[in-house]
Amino acid sequence: MSKLDTRIETSAESNFPTPLKYAGCDPSAAIRYRTEADRIRVFPSISTELDDAETVFERSGPRAFITGDPAVMTAGILTCGGLCPGLNDVIRGLVMSLCHHYGVKKVLGIRYGYAGLTPDGLPPFELTPDCVDEIHRDGGSMLGVSRGAQEVSVMAEQVMALGISKLFVIGGDGTQRGVMELSGELQRRDAGVSVVGIPKTIDNDILWVDQSFGFDTAVDIAARVVTDAHVEARSTERGVGIIKVMGRDSGFIAAHAALASQEANVVLTLESPFAMEGPGGLLAYLEERLEQKDHAVIVVAEGAGQDLFQSLEADQRDASGNKLHRDIGVLLCDKISAHFTDLGKPVKLKYLDPGYSVRSAPACGTDRIYCTRLAHAAVHAAMAGKTAMMVSRWSGHYVHVPLHLVTQGRRKINPSGSLWRTVLEATGQPCLSGDKSGTKV
Amino acid sequence: MSKLDTRIETSAESNFPTPLKYAGCDPSAAIRYRTEADRIRVFPSISTELDDAETVFERSGPRAFITGDPAVMTAGILTCGGLCPGLNDVIRGLVMSLCHHYGVKKVLGIRYGYAGLTPDGLPPFELTPDCVDEIHRDGGSMLGVSRGAQEVSVMAEQVMALGISKLFVIGGDGTQRGVMELSGELQRRDAGVSVVGIPKTIDNDILWVDQSFGFDTAVDIAARVVTDAHVEARSTERGVGIIKVMGRDSGFIAAHAALASQEANVVLTLESPFAMEGPGGLLAYLEERLEQKDHAVIVVAEGAGQDLFQSLEADQRDASGNKLHRDIGVLLCDKISAHFTDLGKPVKLKYLDPGYSVRSAPACGTDRIYCTRLAHAAVHAAMAGKTAMMVSRWSGHYVHVPLHLVTQGRRKINPSGSLWRTVLEATGQPCLSGDKSGTKV
Amino acid sequence: MSKLDTRIETSAESNFPTPLKYAGCDPSAAIRYRTEADRIRVFPSISTELDDAETVFERSGPRAFITGDPAVMTAGILTCGGLCPGLNDVIRGLVMSLCHHYGVKKVLGIRYGYAGLTPDGLPPFELTPDCVDEIHRDGGSMLGVSRGAQEVSVMAEQVMALGISKLFVIGGDGTQRGVMELSGELQRRDAGVSVVGIPKTIDNDILWVDQSFGFDTAVDIAARVVTDAHVEARSTERGVGIIKVMGRDSGFIAAHAALASQEANVVLTLESPFAMEGPGGLLAYLEERLEQKDHAVIVVAEGAGQDLFQSLEADQRDASGNKLHRDIGVLLCDKISAHFTDLGKPVKLKYLDPGYSVRSAPACGTDRIYCTRLAHAAVHAAMAGKTAMMVSRWSGHYVHVPLHLVTQGRRKINPSGSLWRTVLEATGQPCLSGDKSGTKV
Amino acid sequence: MSKLDTRIETSAESNFPTPLKYAGCDPSAAIRYRTEADRIRVFPSISTELDDAETVFERSGPRAFITGDPAVMTAGILTCGGLCPGLNDVIRGLVMSLCHHYGVKKVLGIRYGYAGLTPDGLPPFELTPDCVDEIHRDGGSMLGVSRGAQEVSVMAEQVMALGISKLFVIGGDGTQRGVMELSGELQRRDAGVSVVGIPKTIDNDILWVDQSFGFDTAVDIAARVVTDAHVEARSTERGVGIIKVMGRDSGFIAAHAALASQEANVVLTLESPFAMEGPGGLLAYLEERLEQKDHAVIVVAEGAGQDLFQSLEADQRDASGNKLHRDIGVLLCDKISAHFTDLGKPVKLKYLDPGYSVRSAPACGTDRIYCTRLAHAAVHAAMAGKTAMMVSRWSGHYVHVPLHLVTQGRRKINPSGSLWRTVLEATGQPCLSGDKSGTKV
């Protein structure tokens, strides 16, 4: 295993005593403050000899010394990209911790993502514990979101003009790239501003996060739609249910929704390419399955099967720089419908696309807890002066991840890993790559 | 860090080639079979130098060789103790994997826990993929449960009489002790039977499991009741809501339900003793809080505050050997009601006890996935001949844990750990031990 | 309206005596068989001459003329008694209609019920469309509630002092009696104040309302708990589940929750008295059922079986004047447990009491619609100057009911009507009055 | 029945003209104001002489005499058309009542609708209380469904060949037409077969049913999607959410989902035609609304706005004879998107289509009760020999409706009735017909 550079930069020196005091009921059990020696192993799984210099992440939590007097500090919060269950919980947790735990003077809510850090953006408004007290019951983001980057120097000026010294940015990998650049710009200007990222992705595709917040909620919603499709497919002769779920660059929602519903027979993702036609392809497998079981349920990630569109025009991208996709759900419907009609054995096809519904719901219980813990970890990190970093959960522990690691790509399902193995075990689907050597489980 | 003995015993030699075949779509990405060199670090967090002999758990997953021909094998499944969301998902996953993945000849459902392994028990019945196909939609256990141990030699004889060579036992720490004893007895008889435990506890209190299945579901239900109590408390003048939740020996449900609801003001658990009377005690804090906020919500674990019952008669235990508890919920209601009436400022007290409702629901999406993966892991382990072990998830990875580690105690909330720190951060509750030195967060 | 041909054809002659046997506990309440003379009017709404022979309710809706200029009016809203799903929806609907539809100058929220109309109460605050916009997502009442009446002349003075000319009072039958008295007092003072009641009862027991708001929500929650008890009872040998639900003076929640869950075997209500002991009593029936089915689920209304408490001290009442009840749930547990232990066939008893949880949830979709329509109807009525009345839904239509009709008693399940017949049909329970003449269905 | 005093008092004279202005799109459909002559009968049920002047429906319930000995009877059940929440509850209720209440010898489940009454259909299978005991927990129909009619004489022969004397047919208006024809054919053959229809329509559009079963469930699901769209629209600048829901011939789901969510700003249905362009049209209203509120949520029934498709080719119909519709949701997205882009003020448009998800869920509590009561009513009717009829709920009572009334059309929202008035009141939407005379509420 190669060694990673996991050191965390700081924006200012930590020399002011924290106002925090924890007290367990047993004096001997008092919560101690973290030091840089508290670490989480990056690779808890090993299969070779260890060299003794470990690759570790810094562990999150309150430090004994922070960067200055909170009574004169201003903090800022912004949310970028698409919605995700739990955004309001993270905002609430940040405000509660900044105000109640540290007594920070002022917390500003930046409107509509990075756009709120430009002269054209709506002005920020003050966030207080009272005004965020009940926001966790609602989906969405009380601050609003927007896609796309803004000029870094413009944003740095705005941050400094607002007097912000702790900036929290909630967003995906593109957003975290912005955090890295903004943090660098502010350091070049010697502004003494901590910029801390909080990873947000409905697709669970950010690197170095064991699972992103809101994902449990999204999977629960998507799984219910898989069950709906199963009910439809079972209620008619030769019923085929197709569910398209979010997942441009990775198939985590598709895989988890299939497992959570227990009703999927085929899962199609970007990570495991499939052939439509020919022996060993999807249509051939459906023929076989319908013969045996008279129904089939297919869960497809929106990023799957893009190679099946013959003449995709030059790379098209949205405002966030995400590659635009052809609609694989519609393609599947067309191809399957035509194929079985041609065979003289038409199927009854029911297509379901929950779309935005998987991301606009309020967070479920586990996600609420996770969001609260991430938010508290982010505040502790920023108060200790950490910057150009992202808080994360890794192997179940809260850690600091340097942003240069996060922006190197997107997390994908490992097609030879245990998650995908469970999908294959649970659906019974064979290799669909059309490769003759593909053997069935 | 001291070295643990984590070696796994085997009941028979593994020398029969597995019928399993996985095939990823990319030949280079084929799922490889596990070996004993695949390990998960027990302690992913470190804060000292490592000595190079690591303490590790064996990693679960399919092996290249198993213990014999599945076509002539009989497996058995039984569920012990109280209900838990996901029991049916585990049963379903075991049957599906035994039958579909390995082609095991017969799977027997043992009725009502260990009682089904005695001559007086109801006879087992055969479990097939068809009969378990839809059981995940219902709460409970299709096999029935019972509390209490049975004579080990009697059970061993029954297992052998039924021809079972793979026995799966789903239950808590008491049940796992039974698994260890039964496994030992069967080894003494040279019966060649793998006995694999699957950890089940609604209280999340089994050692060496990062979180037990069904717990997410239970927390979601309990959190809703906390919200109900909050609504009641907020709707009257001087409203106090008290919610008692399960948790005899640990306060995990109480802590998580409080965090998931975001509405609790005080969490009381066994792990953090509290004083009722006097300065720094619960009543004094409630006075203060009602003065400031006019309402309060208290979440109490059933095992909390047992020291407050003055003359608890000699240790009473239920059929599973669990210590019987006095009702702390009722005590809190009585004390708080009387205290404020005496003060001339009576409160309006609303008491809620969801009781069995947190454990009889069907599993939520994440729990379903977890149960399926645990079940598959258990089958792979048993097929490889592992015995006297429990499958588990540790740092997010599926592993084999020897039972002598599991039966050494019960898992508790670490009062100086990060979970309890988050509870203190989220509720703002002070140290309630009555110790004058207790300082508020 | 032209006459429709509503005759029904028959396929064969009916001359075989039905095998059905219903038996209410009171011979005079036996469910009678229908004949062709039992008919329902196709057109319940009429608009012919006012003084014809029909007993009718005035239909609600906007009138062409109202009592004055809304631009100078003040309205007031208050909520009394216990919580109920939908209270916030009614408040929201009232404010939206008063402000948006009529342009009323000011709407005052009275705090904590009638207590807010006394000099000791908290002062009212202004309600605007903005401040009520999102309250429907939360359970409870944003205004707070309290039990108990206040001096009518004091309240009348306060209403006049606040300049309120349209007062909306949401509450149960006791509250509506207050509306009638307050309305009379204000008319005696020639104050020109419309006082309009909106019926609220979690128990569905107000006269002349076809179903009260929040009841669908409450039933859904209670039914889930019945299912929980069923799951528990089915998971052990000789399992008995007992669920106590709200319903002091009527058993509507018990009956509906039993039907909605489809899992109840016995429903016990005030309206159908039952014997505990002896042939034809509850214990005897349970013996029989456990012999046949090995489990039983009992749903009991809190007001049922009060005659079984031998020495109930003199009539005790709460602040609202409701009779206090002995805990029938606990009595059932004790009696059943002792009885079967004495028989040498102990049962495993699981007791569930959802308590306040059935009333603190946000309203479900149908209740939201109902609340909105009731609120709009109440505003239209008050603007037209109606007073001493209650808005209601009757046969599916929104109407005005004079309060002297409402305060004459409480609505109960008719033991010879079709709802109770469906309960008997669905549970298969016999007459449990212990009357030897009681025959089983 | 004695006459009640139902007069309503007034607190002041009504002589000020109301500020309310409603405007339907068709001047003839304007919502009219109520007068005191608008009344609802207090007692919709009567049992006086049969031949009086009233138009009445026969009331359902058990009769003292039935058509023969149940011990030798065979009954049949079939489900037609699309899925609907509650289908399994109806099937369960029929089987339970036939077997437990009447002791009918055999109940046959006909497969896949009317197709199961043809020689090519799958053979029926026997339904017992055991096999239907748990089906109410699942959505769909355990019997399967199909669209389309079959030859009446073929079906009649099959009914007679199977020895069925009580046939229950669950389906929509097309299906009920089949019931009428099949019933007539069987009467012509003097077969002595009762054919009883049970109304099923996800769109709530069958005549003479006060609300169809499953509708509460469907509305709850659709309302959640409206809330999702609202959350999306509120989270961006100039956000527009569009939700398309089922409702080919009537807009009941759209209207109810809008009211249940409380978040819709515009409801579009077939019954209230709207103009897209021009003053008073939808686009003009959206411009105004976005200027004021920066977001808008539109709920559209699939049957709305079909006149906007310029060249709809000759009437296309599906297998059930339902007219095929152009996709109004897609048209709205295209038009709105283009319009605001052309104006230089592009909107962020989020489109949601829950599709089949509103109909494949298990029934909610109220729908379960309704289904059970309908099923029992149908059995009582058939046992009494009724035929060519449909059971129904009317004004809250269960009745028998002759089929010639049911097949005369489809139920629609009355644009001058109180439901649509509530939609206008709740959304604040103006008349969108483009008619200059249209005034805003």
Structure description:
The structure is a homotetramer of 441-residue chains. With 441 residues, chain A is an alpha/beta fold. Chain A folds into two domains: 248 residues, Rossmann fold (3-Layer(aba) Sandwich); 158 residues, Phosphofructokinase domain (Rossmann fold, 3-Layer(aba) Sandwich), CATH 3.40.50.460. Chain A contains eleven helices and 18 strands. In chain A, the strands form four sheets. A nine-stranded mixed sheet of chain A has the order 3-5-18-17-11-10-7-8-9, sandwiched between helices. Chain A has a four-stranded parallel sheet with strand order 13-14-12-15, sandwiched between helices. Chain A has a two-stranded antiparallel sheet with strand order 1-16. In chain A, strand 17 and strand 18 form a beta hairpin. The first copy, chain A, is elongated, with a radius of gyration of 24 Å. The relative contact order of chain A is 0.17. Chains in contact: A-B, A-C, A-D, B-C, B-D, C-D. Chains C and D meet through strand 1, strand 2, strand 3, strand 4 and strand 5 of C and strand 1, strand 2, strand 3, strand 4 and strand 5 of D.
